[in-house]
Amino acid sequence: MNLKVAVIGGGAAGFFSAITAKENNPIADVVIFEKSTKLLAKVKISGGGRCNVTHDCKDPFTLATFYPRGGNYLKKAFQQFHVIDTLRWFEKRGIKMKTYPDGCIFPLSNDSQTIIDCFLNEAKRLGIRIQTSSGVTAITKAGENYVLTVNNEQVLFDRVIITTGGQPKKSGLDWLSSLNLEIIDPVPSLFTFNMPNNPICKLMGTVINPVHVKVEGTKLHANGPLLITHWGMSGPAILLLSAWGARILHENEYSFNILVNWLHEKSENALRKHFKNMKVSNENKMMVNYSGLPLTQRLWEFLLEKAGVPTTMRWKDFGTKNENKLLTTLLQDRYFVKGKTTFKEEFVTAGGISMMEVDVHRMEVKKYPGLHAAGEVLDIDGITGGFNFQAAWTTGFIAGKSAVR
């Protein structure tokens, strides 16, 4: 009798684990259950519809450092399948990739549909059954098998792989309650900062790269590009803070101050020296017209005004009092954050099935032989840049391969 394998969730990890399972056991009966009508929805919209497949970090141990939660477990998992394996997997299926200067890797087509079509074609070629509008509402152990409740019907399987993705609320995993697994409360990760009615929002569209941003009163800090939006601040520097600080910022109810060094890590002494040079070499120029700093003209004007420096002031008249105020504004510019913005389709969560419950070498739930989990349903999440998909490919590969052995 052929092995019956259920994959719960038709997303990135779901398809990768199903394809891997079928390739490792061609006679197994593999079926994907997806509760919605859409398959690979997150793949479709990720990276602005381009799909950031992975990141160009080819050392497994270094790769694991890009995960605020789960990195220690992924060190072991990446020994089995990591970035080079991902690139070979897609290359074998005719998908060419392009690596960008920031390390992000996208399909050469710059179209996520390329990745979706690849998965759908592989599933069809291998004979994997796909059932949409088929939500699994319960799972119970029955001897050595598992009973899934799908659309109010009970179906028996030998092996099960859970790949339902991140859930906004813990209640999204209530259907697993009969298994008594430790579930870490999900909280948002990778979100932007809201700054209601802050005048800086008038500069929406402005990008400064790099800056240094710190959450006041914590050890949280990040470097990178910062984007000013019509609701507050975004960009890699902000997303890094939100990922590493997901739990702390949640506990603070998304109400806190950030300090921005608009000149990255430029020191006070270096900036004072710059001011001194400007007073000599540009003494008769109006400060508002020339800063000599890597800032946009609009931001420079805004920061001068915020520091209380008259827009008519010339460099030669720039005294100590104004210098101290401007120095603080440039190097420790304080902004109050009240709330966050997450892009609902692209949300990433910190939380899920505790990794203490899982044998990372097989992505198998320790208490339940034959029950596996992969992807964001686990308490694993990475920063922005292709790391979350890489975790999905890696854990999906291990779960799929182990489930049919």
Distance between the termini: 15 Å
Q: What is the architecture of the largest domain at the second tier of CATH?
A: 3-Layer(bba) Sandwich
- The outline comes out as elongated
Helix proportion range: 25-40%
Structure description:
This protein has 405 residues and is of the alpha+beta class. The protein has 2 domains: 4-188 and 349-403, 3-Layer(bba) Sandwich (FAD/NAD(P)-binding domain); 191-341, no CATH class. It has 12 helices and 22 strands. A 7-stranded antiparallel sheet has the order 17-16-13-14-15-12-18. Strands 6-2-1-10-22 form a 5-stranded parallel sheet, covered by helices on one side. A 3-stranded antiparallel sheet has the order 3-5-4. A hairpin with a 4-residue loop joins strand 4 (97-99) and strand 5. The radius of gyration is 25 Å and the shape is elongated. The two termini are 15 Å apart.
Characteristic key phrases:
405 residues; alpha+beta; FAD/NAD(P)-binding domain; 5-stranded parallel sheet; 12 helices; elongated
Indicate the topology.
Blueprint: E1 4-8, H1 12-24, E2 29-33, H2 41-49, E3 54-55, H3 60-63, H4 71-77, H5 83-92, E4 97-99, E5 104-107, H6 112-126, E6 129-131, E7 136-142, E8 145-150, E9 153-157, E10 159-162, E11 183-189, E12 192-194, E13 207-215, E14 221-228, E15 232-234, H7 236-244, H8 246-251, E16 255-261, H9 268-281, H10 297-306, H11 320-331, E17 333-338, E18 340-341, E19 348-353, E20 358-359, E21 364-365, E22 371-373, H12 387-403
Parallel strand pairs: 1-2, 1-10, 2-6, 10-22
Antiparallel strand pairs: 3-5, 4-5, 7-8, 8-9, 11-19, 12-15, 12-18, 13-14, 13-16, 14-15, 16-17, 20-21
Helix pairs in contact: 1-6, 1-12, 2-6
